[in-house]
Amino acid sequence: MTVTPSSALSSHSSAGRTASGVLSPVRIAVDCMGGDHGPSITLPACQAFLARHPDAELVLVGLPEAIRPAAHWPRVTLVNASEVVTMDDPVEVALRRKKDSSMRVAISQVKATADQPAAAHACVSAGNTGALMAVARYLLKTVEGIDRPAIATVMPNQKDGFTTVLDLGANVDCSAEHLLQFAVMGSALVAAVDGKDNPTVGLLNIGEEVIKGNEVIKQAGELLRAAHERGLLNFHGNVEGNDIFKGTSDIVVCDGFVGNVALKTSEGLAMMMATFIKQEFTRNIFTKMAALVAMPVLNQFKKRVDHRRYNGAALLGLRGLVFKSHGSADAFAFEHALNRAYDAARHRLLDRVHDQIAATLDSLPSGDQDSAAGVGQAA
Amino acid sequence: MTVTPSSALSSHSSAGRTASGVLSPVRIAVDCMGGDHGPSITLPACQAFLARHPDAELVLVGLPEAIRPAAHWPRVTLVNASEVVTMDDPVEVALRRKKDSSMRVAISQVKATADQPAAAHACVSAGNTGALMAVARYLLKTVEGIDRPAIATVMPNQKDGFTTVLDLGANVDCSAEHLLQFAVMGSALVAAVDGKDNPTVGLLNIGEEVIKGNEVIKQAGELLRAAHERGLLNFHGNVEGNDIFKGTSDIVVCDGFVGNVALKTSEGLAMMMATFIKQEFTRNIFTKMAALVAMPVLNQFKKRVDHRRYNGAALLGLRGLVFKSHGSADAFAFEHALNRAYDAARHRLLDRVHDQIAATLDSLPSGDQDSAAGVGQAA
């Protein structure tokens, strides 16, 4: 059962927008049941988030007994759901059977109808990615001009900034047009969340000395160059895997298979290196003493590469803002996901994606969206 | 101009094979001019290699004045070449114009003809990958049953071993049959070089919770399962990017685009982490003192992840053994590439690939090698 919050806002309406163009207050719907730990981490994260953002409001969605502790918090609306999508639930279960899941109810908060604006500006869930994408896509539909939503995340780079990478696994078979759409959406995301105007876009490719990429990549390069020439985005050119961490471009665009492999490979390497460092420093009494001395320095290092700081992947291309937290996120990490959703909503990411896609479609004769270009795949 | 070495051996002949089945002596042809540094690193590496392997012989190929210092070394034959393929030379230049390059002459040493066995059992070059693959493929041709050669390299894993990954960029568009061939060749490589019988093969895929891979991956999974059931290889199942560093399977098979991105992304992350560690330890006088204390531990760590220790990628599927050293390799790294070539030749990798591919073709009705399966790409 759903209790609709009393006041409702839409990011598409100008109501609630301040003179500077940012939206205030910002209302975020939270799937409190999602992730490996559920309310035990989402609720503390929400509390910390509210303390940090005086103009934020939260719509907390979950089983009644689970969200009750937050009943008397300020700037909070509770919305009950009777079911929970587990991390192992197949997409079909989330989509067809659990129609009153906290995930689904949370997403429905950002859905605007002809009669009624959306109840929240963005939604955050740590639930399973496949279910989240499927339910969000089903409920919200895609923005006009977007064939397929994409998942975008940030990775730290050597410039002490972040590189935004998309797609991360929503689309395994992409055409050149899809990659162009990812570039446009990624640009809007970085402009909104990181406040960077005209961010640069790199197209992920492989060492030119080996081979210059396949047909889809070449066509995508042409589309991106054309968009660049028309001032629709800032195309840097081809980049390679190592450029993600060099910070060569603000955004790196690739198909979902490649993006997912790059992300998981990075996670694996980071974990291996962390394990090795730990093993070396705990090897014997002397190395343990060295560890004591080196601890403050190692902690500084750890902080810089702490993956919790860049938690919160954006599901882009939907008619509503949905952010995905890592399933294993702790409260610190989940709060970061809330922050990203807040920044995106505050800086009107939805309008930006909508406007930039519309401008691109007007300007570029992109042809049939699922044209033959989609057949030869972006390997 | 080429001076053919006086004695010639073939890995396909039983001559020179010891009772234990290993080949001895082993003769390696070295492109002394390849890489960023040429003879200044290749020659010292060759000298160290010879000292370590009393049954090894080297065929040193290069400009006469460059290789002259090695003229009086024991177990060495000098072969002159009049040209050098630069790191920037396009494939066409290496292939069509520089017909007496050190790279080409070195590769030609491992080519056997109907009349004459090959002059060397394996060849090592640090020259540019595209040129090396093209020239090797042109001169040596592929093994029967192999459509496309692949590049295989090793990455360190959390089990303190190595994971062999292929393809690394030779093939951007792969069919399921190609992935099966990579699996067979990778198994032969690991058995020969790492001495591991019946190594496990993982098929690189993306998180099942998102989507279960595309058509090519699914078909490849079926082919690999069938090969496993017939005892042709040891298929572990699907793996994800992080499994490369976990060491979940001995071999990880993927198309060249994905493999190249995974490799380059890993290199980029490792470099960023090394930079961050260095920055933190050199930040001020206190951190520098901590660095002094931690240095021996950090050096142990560095040694474990030292990429020079796993230098030497194998070009598999050719009728001759060719190993590629990183272009920027130092003498220590180049010697490791020589070691890998030596191990491969000594344990008759060429015969193993040949035999295993033949057995697979006999046993599995693989159908049209470039069938429709090759159209929908392994993204």
Give helix % range of chain A.
40-55%
Shape of chain A: globular
How many strand segments of chain A?
11
Segments of chain A where pLDDT lies below 50 for 5+ residues? 1-15, 367-379
CATH architectural group of the domain at 1-140 in chain A: 3-Layer(aba) Sandwich
Biggest β-sheet: strands ordered side by side in the sheet of chain A: 3-2-1-4-11-10-5-6-9-7-8
The H/E string of chain A reads EHEHEHHEHEEHEHEHEHHEEHH
Indicate the CATH class of the domain at 1-140 in chain A: Alpha Beta
Largest interface: A-B, 71 and 72 residues
Rounded to an integer in angstroms, the radius of gyration calculated over CA atoms of chain A is: 21 Å
Task: Give the count of helical stretches of chain A.
Answer: 12
Task: Return the structural class of chain A.
Answer: alpha/beta
Distance between the termini of chain A: 45 Å
What report would you give on this structure?
Chains A, B: It catalyses: a fatty acyl-[ACP] + phosphate = an acyl phosphate + holo-[ACP]. Chains A, B: Pathway: Lipid metabolism; phospholipid metabolism. Chains A, B: Its EC number is 2.3.1.274. Chains A, B: Catalyzes the reversible formation of acyl-phosphate (acyl-PO(4)) from acyl-[acyl-carrier-protein] (acyl-ACP). This enzyme utilizes acyl-ACP as fatty acyl donor, but not acyl-CoA. Chains A, B: Keywords: Acyltransferase, Cytoplasm, Lipid biosynthesis, Lipid metabolism, Phospholipid biosynthesis, Phospholipid metabolism, Transferase. The structure is a homodimer of 379-residue chains. The first copy, chain A, has 379 residues and is an alpha/beta fold. Chain A has a domain at 1-140: 3-Layer(aba) Sandwich (Isopropylmalate Dehydrogenase), CATH 3.40.718.10. Chain A has 12 helices and 11 strands. In chain A, strands 3-2-1-4-11-10-5-6-9-7-8 form an 11-stranded mixed β-sheet, with helices on both faces. In chain A, helix 1 (39-52) packs across helix 11 (331-346), helix 3 (91-97) runs parallel beside helix 5 and helix 4 packs parallel to helix 5. The longest helix of chain A has 26 residues, at 256-281. Chain A is globular and about 55 Å long. The interface between A and B is large, with 71 and 72 residues.
